[in-house]
Amino acid sequence: MRFTSDEFLNLFEEYNLSLWPLQMLLYLLGIFAITFIMIRKRTEGVAVNVALAILWFWMGAVYHLLYFSTINSLAFLFGIFFIIQSAIFIWSGVLGKQLVYRWKLDIKGIVGFLFVIFSFLVYPFLSAFFGHSYPQTPTFGLPCPTTIFTFGILLFSAKKIPWYVFIIPLLWSFIGFSAALNLDMKEDYSLLVAGITGALFLIFSSYPKNNGREVSL
Asked: Whole-model pTM?
């Protein structure tokens, strides 16, 4: 189903106005995740992965299936994959405890922190700058800024992250970028940058063989 830029922006307006103030809870959830990593220094990240799982389930079930599907039939497929991503964070990060996070401002950590700050503060500023002011703008908890945030969190990984954990966010960075080109959403060009940069760090970064004793929650 083809849709126009105006229809796309009107969808954001409907989402933001009808769900207010739930967006603020999503912001708080994101702030909790990065703050938890900063405070705990090193953690198996159960709480962080639960936060990521909630965000991806929200995007899949609420945004894609309930809202985006009204103008784009592919949203049903997108919604399924986003919900799968939520399940991956639960299976791999909560049950399997394979996703360990560490607060360390090396080059990977600095880039990760910049992605997080970008998703919270810079992205909405760019949206307004390009003429997409609230409520006709993707708020945190919607796919593009939240995918950037996800790569930011994953860059605090203390050990190698399996490829299947970030493949869906990476694929979405390409899909979102292609939509940005067609719909003149210039702020979403950053999505491709975050996806490629984040994936390269996650694939090629080296990690200590002995991560020591991690603390769980």
From this structure: 0.94
- 193: three-class secondary structure by DSSP: helix
SS3 of residue 75 by DSSP: helix
Out of 4-18, 24-38, 57-71, 202-216, pick the least confident: 202-216
DSSP letter string, 151-165: HHHHTTBSSPPPHHH
pLDDT digits (tens, 9 = 90+) for 53-111: 999 999 999 999 999 999 999 999 999 999 999 999 999 999 988 899 999 999 999 99
**What is the distance between the alpha carbons of residues 142 and 40, in angstroms, rounded to a whole number?**
27
| Angle CA 190–193–198, to nearest 5 | 125
Of 119, 109, 107, 111, residue with least CA distance to 38: 109
Distance in angstroms (rounded) separating the CA atoms of residues 32 and 71: 33
To which H or E segment does residue 150 belong? helix 143-154
